[in-house]
Model the fold of this input.
Amino acid sequence: MRQIGFLPLLAIFYGYTAGGPFGFEEIFSGSGPGMALVFLTLVPFFWSIPMSFASAELNSILPVQGGFYRWSRAAFGDFWGFQCGWWNWAGTFLLNSLYGVLVMDYLADYLPWLTGSTKWLGASLVLCLLAYLNARGISVAGWLSVVLLAVVLIPVAWLCVVSLFHWHFNPVLPFVPPGKPFGSVFGKGLALAMWDYAGYEQLSSVTGEMKNPQKTFVRILAWNTPMNILTYIVPVTLALAVLGNWQDWQTGYIVPAARQIGGPWLGMSMLVASIIGTAALSNSTILYTTRIPAAMAQDGYLPAWLGKLHVRYGTPARAIAASTVVYCILAKFPVVDLVNVYIWTRIATSLLTLLAAWRLRSKMPNAPRMFRIPGGGAGMLYILIFPAILCGVKVYYSEPFVLRWAPWLLASGPIAYVILRWGVGLRPKPMEAAPAGANQ
Done:
């Protein structure tokens, strides 16, 4: 099986969890610049940092392909292991499809005829191309992501430098949009911020393809989190300080903002960067998420054909192909709608992963841990309570259409388990033995 080292993996993971300051622009007009910046600053401490700590400890115990899905299974058994994997797979149908839509949204600023079926076909073409690259092998995707990262960050840095010399407005005012209901303002903004900082457990799904996974995993998490926070906050804050037009910030607005601040060359450079950054998000997302159904098929949860690896490239080409079909179907819907429904599945899988870290402390107390969640018992409470509070607040402030559809998406997990287990007759294989010294 092909393997990948630190730098390509950091680029892939950055591409999965950020990819540049793109796709979340509507948080500023929807929630107000002040509240948006609060979300983008604080959410990592309630969301991605706890996930980083939990994933690092879990990976040091069980550095297995399929990571967080298999951690949940080891902690809570077959049923909850299936739910974690299924919810992740179902949710990423929505997640992956929106990246094709985002590429078209950025192009539409220069190609206004990209609407309707033409926009959908373009989004589908982007998704199919990136799926093909992933099917060719993780090394191709890895070094491609390194190149993409370098190209993306150059115009972003350019925008920041130019903006420093044209500061005219307070970028945090107004704190919330005047006259809008607080629940709608709060819920939409929180969903976008949680999406921005989601997916930290996904790195665990390809540990089998890492060089020296236990050390590499911790290093990736330590570098990636501050990179993401700076990416989301610095360029947009500076752009708002120059323009002051927070009401105009919709999906894709970073491109016209760059054009207004730095002229046509910066605008065109940012367009290229936004397309590449969004493509990197999609590229990395396909890479991580398609390993989960393949691992589930190898474990006996899903039909065996889905877990077959390509004879030449060693990638789950069938899982990639099957998933891509669904991505293309869903690429007809707006980005914000896809994010708001998707975030419920991310909440469910993330909470299961965090609880798995707690459960395996008692099930496998003597397992060797290269990394432990810092702070002892207080650290464990932090990684459990802070995300639970954030998730509870998000669910409470969900919009009506999300409350109508998201519960059905979660309900598909138990329904699928019953159908596949007792209708189709699939039986999960026993998990491999725990590491030496583990107490099960």
Observations:
- Residues 433-440 have pLDDT under 50 and may be disordered.
- The two ends are 30 Å apart (CA to CA).
